[in-house]
Amino acid sequence: MIKAVIIEDEFNAMNTLDKLIRYTQKDIEVIAKIDNVVEAIAFLKKHTPDLIFLDIDLIGGNAFQILEALESIAFKIIFTTAYDEFAIKAIKFDTIDYLLKPIDSEELTACMDRFKEVFKKEQVYKNALDKVNEINDKEIQKTLLIKTADAQYFLGIKEIIRCQSDGSYTIFHTADRKIMSARNLKYYENILSEHTFVRVHQSHLVNVKYIKTINANNTVCLTNNEKIPVATRKKSYLKQLLETL
Predict the structure, then answer these.
(1) For residue range 19-39, what is the model confidence (pLDDT) as tens digits?
(2) Is 115 buried (19+), middle (13-18) or exposed (0-12) by CB count in 10 A?
(3) Residues facing 179 on adjacent strands
(4) Which of 158, 125, 133 is nearest to 144 (CA)?
(5) What count of other Cβ atoms lies within 10 Å of the Cβ of residue 86?
(6) Cα dihedral angle (196, 197, 200, 205), rounded to 10 degrees?
(7) How far apart, in whole angstroms, are the C-alpha atoms of residue 17 and residue 53?
(8) Which of 45, 69, 203, 219 would disulfide-bridge 165, Cβ 3.0–4.6 Å?
(9) Mean of pLDDT values over 231-242
(10) Is the pLDDT at 137 greater than 60, yes or no?
(11) pLDDT tens for residues 101-127?
(12) Which of 104, 48, 61 is closest to 80 using CA atoms?
């Protein structure tokens, strides 16, 4: 539902517009009706509707005092007034349209059709932007910070072939290097288990994407031809997991 607010100080005009919206625009919900500048400012500082129908002259001031009091305007505006002298000033705000009173259903419908066309395009853009941000967030999560005794490394999780326990330390194996972290294997198991890593043995945490074969002698052969021991109780689970990848 598109959420709308009516800001209008004439009681009859407010109710007429509310009824017209309810009867002709089933996808629009009027969430508030306000008749004065002070309450309108307070409401819009706390809530962000999609659209406001905004009369020019109001109790306690005018529409432009409301808009100038807001830090940002994240909604569309349809000005409603009996006079068109404010039209030029309205342009500097995010005005989608301008309705002259008395408003009839045909004019309202035409106005709302124009608004919905713009609104739909902006929603498509917003959804695409949200998707990009989601992907970027996931990419950030795919980078692991590894602290060693003398440096810090940012290692892409997909680069990690396996992690090997060395007492209270962990050795990270990639295709071209080894990095020893001062944290134990259990610490990294808690982080990497959300990705494609499995603790196949007390001393080994393996990225299953690098497993080439599971062998009868309780080992796995990795794509770099290393052979890693596998606990017997892990073999069945590992086979099922590989079948899903």
Answers:
(1) 999 999 999 999 999 999 999
(2) buried
(3) 172
(4) 158
(5) 16
(6) 160
(7) 9
(8) 203
(9) 83
(10) no
(11) 899 899 999 999 999 988 888 887 677
(12) 104
φ and ψ of 95, to 5 deg: -85, 125
CA distances from 96 to 110, 117, 127, 160 (A): 12, 11, 21, 52
What DSSP letter does each residue of the chain carry, written as one string?
-EEEEEE-S-HHHHHHHHHHHHHH-TTEEEEEEE-BHHHHHHHHHH---SEEEEESEEBTEEHHHHHHHSS---SEEEEEES--TTHHHHTTS-EEEEEESSP-HHHHHHHHHHHHHHHHHHHHHHHHHHHHHHHHHHHHHTEEEEE-SS-EEEEEGGG--EEEEETTEEEEE-SS-EEEESS-HHHHHHHHTTTTEEEEETTEEEEGGGEEEEETTTEEEETTS-EEE--HHHHHHHHHHHHH-
Q: Cα–Cα distance between 115 and 50 in angstroms, integer?
A: 10
Decide if 67 contacts 75 (C-beta within 8 A).
no
What are 136's two structure tokens? Answer: 């970027």
Query: Residue 81: beta bridge partners?
Result: 100
Residue 245 confidence (pLDDT) above 70: no
CA 225 to chain centre: 41
- Please tell me the predicted confidence (pLDDT) of residue 71: 87
Rounded Cα distance between 168 and 174, Å, is 20
Token pair of 98, please? 């301008």
Range of weakest confidence among 69-78, 121-130, 218-227: 121-130
Q: Whole-model pTM? A: 0.55
User: Which residue, 24, 68, 74, 69, is CA-closest to 51?
Assistant: 74
Between residues 68 and 236, the one the model is more confident about? 68
